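Technical annex, item 7. During the second reporting period the consortium partners agreed on a shared format for inverse folding records so that results from different sites could be compared directly. Each record opens with the tokenized structure and is followed by the designed sequence. A conforming record, contributed by the partner at site C, is shown below for reference.
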């Protein structure tokens, strides 16, 4: 089997194992996990490129039903069984994840699926305390709050990170107007299907997001993260420079 086919098979196995954790949480949670992990490119990207380091403390802000935690747990187990693709970065072994999520229903699903293998806090990212972390993950949630609140969340995320810490922030690029509008429409539809009111959305061009992160002390790299979707998503990788490091 070629390396490409082997990696594709390994990814399918990870998706199935991570999704299967949600059987105790109900059919919706199970099928949502399988679909989201299968079609959203960000999850595979995080693993393939080693953006979550072994033995790191991860803070997942807006964690939903805990998909990242479930995927990391599956990855740890597969790697220990000797089934980690050779071409991928080292596996995220022994990661300790804390997830913060506003929805009580989502937190309940996460706890039903993962038990005490990760910590899930039901609270509002705008005011819940952030624990110290090596990596902060914020995927597709900041646009639900006002710009001032976005800035406050990012400042607190920066404060939670030590030198060498990493921020993984996926945002929609408001400069890509048609794709960004599609993202907004899909968000509203999902909220309606879940019986929730549509939330206000405050977007920015990626250049503005980047400039703001640089102002907080991050070195920033951007990666398009919408492959196979109609969205304008970009993954911004912010790193806190270690003392004495020069750019």
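Designed sequence (site C submission):
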């Amino acid at each position: 089997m070629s390396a490409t086919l082997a990696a594709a098979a390994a990814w399918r196995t990870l998706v199935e194992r991570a999704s299967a954790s949600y059987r105790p949480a109900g059919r919706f949670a199970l099928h949502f996990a399988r679909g989201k992990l299968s079609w959203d490119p960000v999850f595979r990207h995080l693993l393939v490129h080693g953006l979550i380091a072994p033995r790191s403390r991860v803070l997942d802000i807006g964690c939903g039903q805990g998909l990242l935690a479930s995927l990391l747990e599956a990855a740890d187990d597969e790697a220990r069984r000797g089934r980690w693709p050779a071409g991928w970065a080292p596996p995220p072994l022994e990661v300790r994840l804390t997830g913060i999520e506003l929805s009580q229903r989502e937190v309940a699903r996460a706890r039903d699926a993962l038990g005490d293998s990760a910590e899930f806090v039901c609270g509002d990212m705008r005011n819940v305390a952030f624990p110290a972390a090596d990596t902060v993950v914020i995927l597709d949630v900041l646009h639900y709050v006002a710009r001032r609140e976005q800035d406050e969340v990012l400042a607190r995320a920066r404060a939670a990170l030590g030198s060498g810490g990493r921020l993984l922030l996926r945002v929609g690029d408001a400069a890509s107007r048609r794709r960004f509008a599609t993202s907004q429409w899909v968000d509203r539809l999902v909220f309606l299907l879940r019986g929730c009111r549509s939330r206000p959305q405050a977007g920015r061009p990626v250049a503005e997001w980047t400039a703001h992160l640089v102002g907080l002390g991050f070195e920033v790299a951007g990666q398009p993260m919408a492959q196979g979707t109609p969205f304008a998503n970009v993954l911004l990788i912010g790193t806190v420079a270690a003392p004495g490091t020069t750019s």
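The longest strand covers residues 161-172. The mean pLDDT is 90. All partners now use this format for quarterly exchanges.
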